[in-house]
From TrEMBL:
Lineage, uppermost ranks: Bacteria, Bacillati, Actinomycetota, Actinomycetes, Micrococcales
Protein name per Swiss-Prot or TrEMBL: Globin
GO molecular function: heme binding; metal ion binding; oxygen binding; oxygen carrier activity
Keyword Cytoplasm annotated: no
Family the UniProt entry places it in: Belongs to the truncated hemoglobin family. Group II subfamily.
């Protein structure tokens, strides 16, 4: 039997079959052992984002924080972020790098009032999913903590 120096077998070569397997969409992770999968995967997160942004679109305090006329790009970024955070596809990191949430929100005045409005619309969105109490509590706990950490300005009346 032919071994390389040190008695180790040769490393497998990245031939055409190996490359094909690496590019095969069916060989991608199934995300089966994640919160993402447990709550319904992509469709659940799309619904969460759609319902949330329906509220944001008409909110006089939050809407100005979205400079793009079309909320579609913001929806896509938030969807990718949440899917990755909860154990789904890693598209957000591949396209945008580290989330750096506080840094990305610094250009906007996120006041306690803005946090409350954000949570109001997120509460509506989370409720629309009709998750199990455990999953709903886990998701809502994260949303509350995340919203609190985004505050970067005092109250408007302060």
């Amino acid at each position: 039997m032919s071994n390389t120096a040190g008695g180790q077998p040769p490393a497998p070569q990245a031939g055409p079959r190996r490359q094909l397997m690496q590019n095969d969409p069916f060989s991608q992770p199934a995300y089966t052992d994640s919160f993402y999968a447990a709550v319904g995967g992509h469709e659940t997160f799309v619904k969460l984002i759609d319902v949330f942004y329906d509220g944001v679109a008409t909110d006089p305090l939050l809407r100005p924080m979205y400079p793009e006329e079309d909320l579609g790009p913001a929806k896509r970024r938030f969807l990718m972020f949440l899917e990755q955070y909860w154990g789904g596809p890693t598209t957000y990191g591949e396209e945008r790098g580290h989330p750096r949430l506080r840094m990305r929100h610094m250009p906007f005045q996120v006041t306690p009032e803005a946090k409350d409005r954000w949570l109001f619309h997120m509460r509506t969105a989370v409720d629309s999913l009709e998750l199990s109490p455990l999953h709903e509590g886990t998701l809502w706990d994260y949303m509350e903590r995340a919203a609190l950490t985004m505050i970067n300005s005092p109250s408007a009346g302060a």
